[in-house]
Design goal:
The protein has three helices and five strands; from the N terminus they run H-E-E-E-H-E-E-H. With 118 residues, the protein is α+β, with helices and mostly antiparallel strands.
Length: 118
């Protein structure tokens, strides 16, 4: 778990940057969930104050793209809920947020309508 914590924090910070909220969101804690392999408990802060805590699926292998995607989706859900449902990251020309996806082993954000056409 100790090896995974800085990786998850880096992924979360990238997600915060891409959602446009990195100036005031941070991961303050990543902890293993007892008896649940591939799940961590995230504690998130907003403006330096505890905002939310949530379990997040991480999978059991670092290269698991489905687990990475699930982790980022859960992070986005937590931020959206705390931000009052704001569409983050903004999807130009649409009222909904962009959604994360994996393309060529890289995390990208896309319009959900575009993602459905792929």
């Amino acid at each position: 778990m100790d090896d995974l914590e800085p990786i998850l924090e880096a992924i979360a910070q990238q997600g915060f940057r891409e959602m446009g909220v990195s100036a005031h969101w941070e991961v303050s804690e990543v902890a293993a969930v007892p008896d649940m392999v591939g799940v961590v408990h995230l504690v998130l802060t907003r403006h330096g104050r505890p905002a939310t805590s949530t379990p997040a699926f991480t999978g059991t292998e670092l290269g698991d793209e489905n687990a990475l995607l699930a982790f980022v989706e859960q992070l986005q859900d937590a931020v959206l809920e705390e931000e009052g449902g704001a569409a983050l990251p903004v999807c130009p020309g649409h009222p909904h947020p962009q959604v994360p996806s994996i393309e060529s082993r890289t995390l990208v954000w896309r319009c959900p309508e575009e993602a459905r056409r792929r």
